[in-house]
Amino acid sequence: MKDKISKQEAIFYSHKMAQLSKALWKAIEKDWQDWIKPFKLNINEHHILWIAYHLEGSSISEISKYGVMHVSTAFNFSKKLEKRGLLQFSKRENDKRNTYIELTKEGSELLEATLNEYSPEDNSVLRGALPMTEMYGKLPEFLDLSALIKEIYGNEYMEILERSLENIEEKNPVNEEPTDIESYKQQPKSS
Amino acid sequence: MKDKISKQEAIFYSHKMAQLSKALWKAIEKDWQDWIKPFKLNINEHHILWIAYHLEGSSISEISKYGVMHVSTAFNFSKKLEKRGLLQFSKRENDKRNTYIELTKEGSELLEATLNEYSPEDNSVLRGALPMTEMYGKLPEFLDLSALIKEIYGNEYMEILERSLENIEEKNPVNEEPTDIESYKQQPKSS
User: How far is B69 from chain A (nearest CA, A)?
Assistant: First the structure.
């Protein structure tokens, strides 16, 4: 790498990427928090429900990997969701070493309710990307960003991401009718 | 927005962006932590030093805005840096309402020392972007990502980013010689 770019160029480049990435993630994080707050979930909890829903059951290490969170974070928040009756822990016959989680009916329904409550109008990324459709004729695909993540995290990460998106499409849980969120505000087993 | 994309498309799109953005930021965050750990700084502290260095003094609200951190976070970590003798607080004659910070000689030297210690080989983003130079003939510019951040955060955010990069270039603090970091490991006033 030294032969190709100077140290100063490298610092410029990585600092710019750090600023862009931090700004993007902070905007997404804030929108995500605002979206799921009425359901008494934090981002980690919602992300766990999401991954388990779309993978139709998942090991804790898969949650950690695809949720980009520490294994202990994945485990501890899964335990909290178990206490609320939203998921169950299990071992699999062919893989005794890993702990698996699977959503309960209540967990699936809660995740679907959050998806139905999603409001594109409140999403900074969508609002920011929309003017770019005039240039591209569609929402920008961020292909270089996808390529970079594939380089850093490996093919499998991107494959799981694509697969989890296909699963939403198949299950088709999103209706265009607004959901009555009042019924989810009080979780039966939540503390 | 409703006329243009369905709710399901919107969820797909924003979920994909959330996954990519979280993955990118977590990789950058980890590299950043590893880079500055020998200097007994956390990311917020280093980011404050960086911004104050490149803006040649800055108000707390500028730190908050360009560092994408809460005002109280910017203030509290600036206070910690003040205790270590790395920056000074002041008011400006023409702007009594805002609190300004300016790096001390020790603060500037410490920031320069971290820049000199930066190792492109250890940076996931650079390592991930390098194979893409074969396609582009240069490091990918992530122009759609820059355009998106400009839409979300406004022109000023991007202008400050460009300006802070020009300032590194002018001050030219980076030499290609490795720095002796041992002398910075023990901060005189640190607890």
Answer: 9
